[in-house]
Each structure stands twice: as structure tokens, then as C-alpha cells.
Specification:
With 330 residues, this protein is an alpha/beta fold. Helix content is 42%, strand content 17%. The strands form 2 sheets. A 7-stranded mixed β-sheet has the order 3-2-1-4-5-10-11, sandwiched between helices. The radius of gyration is 22 Å and the shape is elongated.
């Protein structure tokens, strides 16, 4: 180690995700175990501009593993997008004596991290977003928890919809990616799933599958829509105009962000938080911590931000086979 790390900051930015608190806990406790002070920066990059911070101790991060949200709060900062705002953030880092910052969030957070690193402040990113759309990592903290929340909601919805023999159109989150919708749709046995990566033919992918389910004797039809693939209300209207059945529309919304994180998210957040601190200690800052093939990896921030993640179409094919009328050759 060329330079002793004495004090680091940690912040959460962008949309909250279950497991962020577990990552904050891991960063703080790993730092403290190595004789490093840990400062919690509240309200993301804006908090760094405003010098909004708290001292983190082993006790203050206790009981966080099962707690949803983020004790450091989160916010999006337009001021940080300006050169003046970033200079204010650098001033705060210098005033607090920070040798680096751990930034927990998604792509937007990491773009901010890159800009800060270019101004001489080492940054390590930890991917946390329910969308699972960060290109450099197979998995992001919060995805499993959000999937399980959506699955639980849809399972309950299915009970009442089957009782009334109705069609349900359920919109899940995911921004411009279909990872969450595809996972959830497969897990609940949806009649059809719409994702932005594979819009295809609406007649074939939705209408014909509902018809196939009807011909197979089913009276309830579940259509899962990723928010990036269209609004559930519009999808429902198309179904009604074509088939003459009026779907029930459900937008699960921000409930997917809340609640206690699953075991996978707690464990992954803990490992990522630990490795983020070790990257500073071993002088490997300015990187993003990720998972690949089950292991933890470090990717330089600039390289990481150029990486793209594609929906695994073999999973989409499996989902099609499981659906009524699925299994069509493309």
C-alpha cells in the first residue's frame, strides 16, 4: 500500500434499493476493523456538496442488515452535474479529510463517481439498483428483493382475479430494462411478458397467447409488462379492443423498492461493501465492484461505464415454452 487510508466517506445515490443499508454497514465495519474512520454522507452527491454528514460507528450501523431503504437517504443532484457543484464536493472531501468515497447506486451514481475521480478524489462504486441494469456486473443489490416483492403481489392478485375469471395486466419496474419483468413473469407463470428488449409482434406475443390459454381451458390470464415496454393501461386497452375482454390494470410501483432485503441481497451487499473498502486499502480505487460467475471483481470506472448488459434471450425462450401457445420458432 503506497498511501495509508485514514478516513473514507460512503453515500447512497439514485433510486433506493433493499440491501443498501447492508452495504453501508459492511463498508463502515470493514473500515473500522482496519483502523479507518468512516463518514456517512447523507443525501447522495448533493450531501457531499452541502457537507451533510454523520460519523459512522460499529454501533450506529448495527441492526441494518434487515432494514430496507437507506439510513443515509438518497437524492438526485442536478447541481453535481455542474463543474461548480463538483468543485464544492471536492472542497467537502478535502475539508473532511476523505481519502476516498464509496458510492452505492446505479449508472447515474457511477457517472458522478467518474467525474469526482477525475478531480482527484478516489471513488469505488457498489452497484445497487432493483433494475439490475448495470452493465459491468451480473447482479445488483436489490434485484432479488424487488423480484420477490413483485412475485408476492402478483400471487395475491392472481387469487382474486382467478375467482372473477379476469385478465390482469401488471406493470413492474425496471426502467428501460426487462430483467425484473422477465424474472417475475417466469416465476409467476404469466401468460405473456412484455420487455423493451423484445417487443416483437403484439398479436403473437400477447393476443395469441391469451387465446391459447383460453383454448386450453383457462379463464384467468396474467400479462406482465416492464415499465420500459409501455404503460399497463395502454396494453390493457389493446387487449380489450382486440379480444373484447376488459383487463384489470395493476401498477405495483414503488412498493418494489421497499421492505426487508432478501438473504441474497444482504449477503451480496456485505461482500461488495467489504471489497470496496479493501480496494482503497490496497490502492485500487476508481473502480466499480461487481459480480461475475459468482465471484467479486473490480472494473475501472471508465471501462465499466462502457459495458452493456443484454437480456438473456434463452431465459425469454424458456418463459415462452412455459406459456400457453409458447415455443414458437423465431
Amino acid at each position: 500500500m503506497d498511501k495509508k487510508v485514514r478516513r473514507i466517506g460512503v453515500l447512497t445515490s439514485g433510486g433506493d434499493a433493499p440491501g443498501m443499508n447492508a452495504a453501508v454497514r459492511a463498508v463502515a465495519r470493514t473500515a473500522l476493523a482496519n483502523g479507518i474512520e468512516c463518514i456517512g454522507i447523507r443525501r447522495g452527491w448533493q450531501g457531499l456538496i452541502n457537507c451533510d454528514f454523520i460519523q459512522l460507528t460499529r454501533a450506529s450501523v448495527g441492526h441494518l442488515l434487515s432494514r430496507g431503504g437507506t439510513i443515509l437517504y438518497t437524492a438526485r443532484s442536478t447541481e453535481f452535474m455542474t463543474e461548480e457543484g463538483r468543485q464544492k464536493a471536492v472542497t467537502t472531501c478535502k475539508m473532511l479529510g476523505l481519502d476516498g468515497v464509496v458510492a452505492i447506486g446505479g449508472d447515474g451514481t457511477f457517472r458522478g463517481a467518474l467525474e469526482l475521480s477525475r478531480l482527484g478524489i478516489p471513488v469505488v462504486g457498489v452497484p445497487a439498483t432493483i433494475d439490475n441494469d448495470v452493465g459491468c456486473t451480473n447482479y445488483t443489490i436489490g434485484f432479488d428483493s424487488a423480484c420477490n416483492t413483485a412475485i408476492e403481489c402478483i400471487d395475491k392478485l392472481r387469487d382474486t382475479m382467478q375467482s372473477h375469471e379476469r385478465c390482469s395486466v401488471v406493470e413492474v419496474m425496471g426502467r428501460n430494462a426487462g430483467f425484473l419483468a422477465l424474472y417475475v413473469g417466469t416465476a409467476v407463470g404469466a401468460t405473456a411478458v412484455l420487455v423493451p428488449e423484445h417487443m416483437g409482434d403484439f398479436e403473437k406475443n400477447v393476443i395469441e397467447r391469451i387465446r391459447g390459454a383460453k383454448l386450453a381451458g383457462y379463464t384467468h390470464f396474467m400479462v406482465v409488462v416492464a415499465e420500459g415496454a409501455g404503460h399497463a393501461t395502454d396494453i390493457g386497452k389493446k387487449i380489450q379492443d382486440t379480444l373484447g375482454i376488459k383487463p384489470t390494470i395493476t401498477v405495483i410501483g414503488h412498493i418494489q423498492r421497499g421492505g426487508a432485503p432478501t438473504g441474497r441481497d444482504r449477503e451480496t451487499a456485505t461482500r461488495m461493501g467489504y471489497h470496496a473498502v479493501m480496494a482503497f486499502i490496497e490502492d485500487r480505487g476508481n473502480c466499480i465492484i461487481g459480480t461475475q460467475e459468482g465471484g467479486i471483481v473490480e472494473i475501472p470506472i471508465e471501462e465499466a461505464l462502457t459495458m452493456k448488459k443484454h437480456l438473456q434471450m434463452d431465459r425469454y425462450k424458456i418463459m415462452e415454452i412455459m406459456q400457453f401457445g409458447g415455443g414458437h420458432d423465431e
